[in-house]
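Quick one, T. Sequence first:
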Amino acid sequence: MSFIRAVHGSAGAAATRHGDGASLSGGLRLLLAASAGVPVAALYYSQPMLGVIGASTGAADAVVGFLPTLTQLGYALGILLLTPLGDRFDRRRIILVKAALLSVALLLGGLAPDMSLLLVMSFAVGLTATVAQDIVPAAATLAPARERGKVVGTVMTGLLLGILLSRVVAGVVAEQFGWRAMFIIAAASVALIGVAAWRGLPRFQPTSTLSYGALLASLARLWRQHGALRRAALAQGLLSVGFSAFWSTLAVMLHGAPFHLGSAAAGAFGLAGAAGALGAPVAGRVADRFGPEVVTRLGAGLTAVSFATMFAAPWLEPNARLWLIGGSAIGFDLGVQMSLVAHQTIVFGIDAAARSRLNAVLFVGMFIGMSAGAASGSLVLARWGWMAVTVLATASALAALLVRLAPRARVAH
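Structure tokens:
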């Protein structure tokens, strides 16, 4: 409760003056970062617990595998169908409603007597965890223009830390107390964030009077109208292809010769992504000072170089190869997150009245890239091996760099 009091006390005055040029208080920034990280972590809790859940419920592996699939599907649909509502209604109210529903979904998942209810709740968790995507445009609205990149970067740090730490926390809790305890703890943490948001966030004036159908239809109009949005979504989507191809095939590659490592080792590589989380605010500050265009190019270039370093893997001993892969993961995670923060800074500056919809379009493009990367990565690994995955990842990053380097007149209009 001290967290709630601290946030409420430091955020209250500053929050009511959003958009007038006043810097955000530290308490409000902490609230925004936590409000993004805690809900998005709910998307990944089930992944390290699938074996435990299957053994506990007696469900087949194929059925248990639908848990993360339905969660991700719910999240993707939520971004497309629910996130645009932030432009039509008070964003604070949307955040509070989604946080409450997410907490209930997690609690019911933890208490589910059978797999059928757990599957339904997994979809509901994904749908309502999109509250994290309401927080990002809220932060962009609250922040003065001169600090928008820095503030968005701070919020993205919270979101990324939620993703990175969720699997580690879930694995430890499930091993010590069971998978149901993890869902119940997650429900309580989201409820706590909801109370803090209720006390610390200001009300937001709606920026659109469009009906729900018109809001969704306007997504296509925004795509056609703003070349900067198309450019950002295409570049981030291409970066996501390589990112997803790497992470979706890493565990399979490590399981085989010459490593013969288990899933825990693959999960440990995910901690390398902490560099990306820590680098997000730095990328935001650089974007504020030198412009986000520069950061998108630096991020895409760093991603391409990091993937390309793995071409040296066949000539290294197994232990050295693992170090190379870990170093590459640090580099491309940082590059991808730098680009994401810069792209968000770009799209949030297009139209202040459509920030929720602009963010939705950007993330739909990103998720399309993620899905394409996972599918193509698995296919490439099965047919041509790990080096072919490296080629795919490097090529997609270079393509993103070309998008950012191409003259705007050709790509953006």
